[in-house]
Each structure stands twice: as structure tokens, then as C-alpha cells.
Design brief:
With 272 residues, the protein is mainly alpha-helical. The chain has a domain of 90 residues. It is flat and about 65 Å long. The relative contact order is 0.14.
């Protein structure tokens, strides 16, 4: 699992997956990459988080692909023709069908990669990713990542209380909804400022030794991290130089995601 690797090597590894998923448009390669990334999700948390996300993403993906097929009027090979009321005869071509499926698979692939990143790179691990270059921007990113889930639950609680206490909080008209949004935003801002104040006080107390002691656990860079990082960077070089290397060596882009997945498995067998 990627949790056994250093956060920096895991981030570089996932960045390589992201670049490949972003620029590859071949449906077969994208399908292979999606299957491999889903396997990695199963290895991390049995794809529990990914399955929850897919409940919302799959209908959206199918809608976008279907809508694109109905509007696309380019292509040479006819796949299917049918009549639709008020629209007449609609022809579906193979080229837009392949493009729609490729874009849908690419969306699923990118979301799966981001889900792995969210599982492996926690808020505290961001400091390990940037190392000595962790400045105020990284600190703000860590604080923001910690506060966003809390802000969502706090907003839900405020809305429930407002619905019970304010008469007509669930108004039907747009004007009443805008009026009811005023107290909601005010309470949400107040709760956010209070949380920020508590965080600042805790940071100040710990800095001067007046609060609870903070323990830091060093994360060592191991041989497996070097192996997976060099493999990911090599795959990126091969992908960037794809036209030249494909003509010179005859390799296929299918090899790249397989090499990435194999490097993760092989790295886990290396000694610490």
C-alpha cells in the first residue's frame, strides 16, 4: 500500500498517474489505467470511499456522455440511427461514441486518483511532501484542509437549528431564501472565526510550551521510496518523449501504467 511509502514519493507517484490520465485519450489505455487504479483503491481501503463517490459521479458521467452523443454530428462510421419525437432522425457515429466513452472513463480515472491522494496524503503529511520548503503557504493549506470537513458539518448543524428556530426557513420563493441566508451566513462566519481563534491560541501555547506537548515522528526515506520515485520519473520521461521513443524502440503506451503498478508492488518487497 502507498501508506508504507514516504509521503513525498507517494505524491510523485500519484502525480505521474495524474499526468498520464490527463493527456492520454486512448480508450483502451484509459480503461486499463482505471482498472489498475481501482485495484490500488481496493488495496488502500477496499474502495469504500471511492464507492461513495461513484454513486454521484456515474450518473453524471452517463448523462454527459449521452448528451454529447445527441449533439455530436461529426464522424464517418454510423453506429446507430433512430427517430426521436420532435427531433427527427438522430444518427450516432462511432467517433463521437468513442470520444464520449474515453472522456467518461478519464473522469472516473481522475476521481479515483484524487481519492487515493486523499487517503494517502493526509493534512499532516503535506509538511513531509514539501520538506524544507514548507512555508506559510503549506501551513495555510494544512489548516484549510482540516477546517473544510469541520466547516461542512458546522454548516449542516447551523442550517438544522435555523430551520427549527426561524419560522419559514425552508421557504419556497427565492426572495425568502435570500433573506434567510443572512442569519445562516452570519452564524457560519462567527463559528469559523471562533474556530480560527482557538487554533491560533493552541498554536501559540504550544510554541511557548504552555500547552500540551506535540510529538513529531520522523519519516525516513527508504530504498523503496527511491525505487518508486525513479520509476515514476522514468515513466514521465518516456511519456513526454513518446513519439521519438515509440518510433525508435517500438514500445507501446500500454506499458506505462503496467510499469507504474508493478513498481508499487515491487517496492513493497524491498527491505526498509
Amino acid at each position: 500500500m502507498l501508506n508504507n511509502y514516504h509521503p513525498r514519493s507517494a505524491a510523485i507517484y500519484l502525480f505521474c498517474w495524474f499526468i498520464l490520465a490527463l493527456f492520454i485519450n486512448d480508450l483502451k489505455v484509459l480503461t486499463l489505467m482505471t482498472l489498475l487504479v481501482i485495484i490500488i483503491n481496493f488495496a488502500e481501503d477496499r474502495a469504500k470511499a471511492l464507492s461513495k463517490i461513484m454513486l454521484f459521479i456515474m450518473p453524471l458521467t452517463l448523462f454527459i456522455a449521452g448528451f454529447n452523443l445527441l449533439l455530436a454530428d461529426y464522424g464517418q462510421a454510423v453506429f446507430y440511427t433512430f427517430n426521436m419525437p420532435l427531433a427527427g432522425e438522430i444518427t450516432i457515429y462511432q467517433e463521437p461514441l468513442a470520444n464520449s466513452l474515453a472522456m467518461g472513463v478519464k473522469l472516473l480515472l481522475l476521481i479515483s486518483i484524487f481519492n487515493i491522494f486523499n487517503l494517502v496524503i493526509t493534512a499532516d503529511n503535506l509538511f513531509s511532501v514539501f520538506g524544507a520548503y514548507s512555508g506559510s503557504a503549506v501551513l495555510l493549506a494544512v489548516l484549510a484542509r482540516r477546517m473544510v470537513p469541520w466547516l461542512g458539518s458546522e454548516a449542516r448543524s447551523i442550517y438544522e437549528v435555523q430551520t427549527l428556530r426561524i419560522r419559514g426557513a425552508e421557504a419556497d420563493s427565492l426572495l425568502k431564501k435570500v433573506k434567510n441566508a443572512g442569519p445562516f451566513l452570519t452564524n457560519l462566519l462567527r463559528a469559523t472565526l471562533e474556530s480560527s481563534l482557538h487554533t491560533a491560541e493552541a498554536m501559540q501555547l504550544r510554541a511557548y510550551g504552555s500547552g500540551k506537548r506535540t510529538y513529531f515522528v520522523p519519516e525516513k526515506w527508504q530504498s523503496r521510496d527511491t525505487f518508486i520515485t525513479l520509476t515514476a520519473l522514468t515513466v514521465l520521461v518516456f511519456f513526454i518523449c513518446d513519439p521519438f521513443l515509440a518510433e525508435l524502440t517500438g514500445y507501446s503506451v500500454f506499458i506505462l501504467p503496467i510499469v507504474l503498478t508493478g513498481s508499487q508492488l515491487a517496492g513493497g518487497l524491498l527491505k526498509q
